[in-house]
Amino acid sequence: xxxxxxxxxxTKNRILDAAELxxxxxxxxxxxxxxxxxxxxxxxxxxxxxxxxxxxxLQAVYARRAGPVNERRLELLTAYENSGRAPAVEPVLDALxxxxxxxxxxxxxxxxxxxxxxxxxxxxxxxxxxAAQFQEIFRRFHAAFRRALPHLPEQxxxxxxxxxxxxxANTMASMKNLHALSQxxxxxxxxxxxxQWLIQFTAAGLRAPASxxxxxxxx
Length: 219
Known about the structure:
Structural class: mainly alpha
Radius of gyration: 20 Å
Oligomer: single chain
Low-confidence stretches: 214-219
Distance between the termini: 64 Å
Order of helices and strands: HHHHHHHHHHH
């Protein structure tokens, strides 16, 4: 590969595409640069030229997908907050979830990549990438949920938000598994109907009465 080829945008995108698929399927630690270069049909010099390290490549992979999704989330949330409507859980959930559903069928590995980063590869590198992409998102949505759910203690609100993220990640990553387990009685891919049901389900959990310490300990 010539220097000109290895510096081209096409080469960079091939590296990103290959790394995205491999990180989603195998995880960060189990994916080697050699595997990425083989899948992208580039040499190691091209990876080093564009990304310098595997850690920087992971950051670039996630920023490429999470960046537009998070921009869309903030766009929807801002539109809702500027609408003058009373604080409510459903519009906030819609702003959080809808952008992933809009791209879910287009890039099926994106939900798997999210699950990898959130749960399966929860190490220092993955946590740093996750924090860089989602700290502002968490701050904005926490404030929106706080206005809609003033009855919840802070710790319980944080945990319920985590439950929501878990339900979203599992739904996005596991629809084909559910389709197989239900013997075809469910859709094999995410849909806007799935989004509506997920919002209805998680909204009920978020709005549930706050748990007292005594009842929580007794259970």
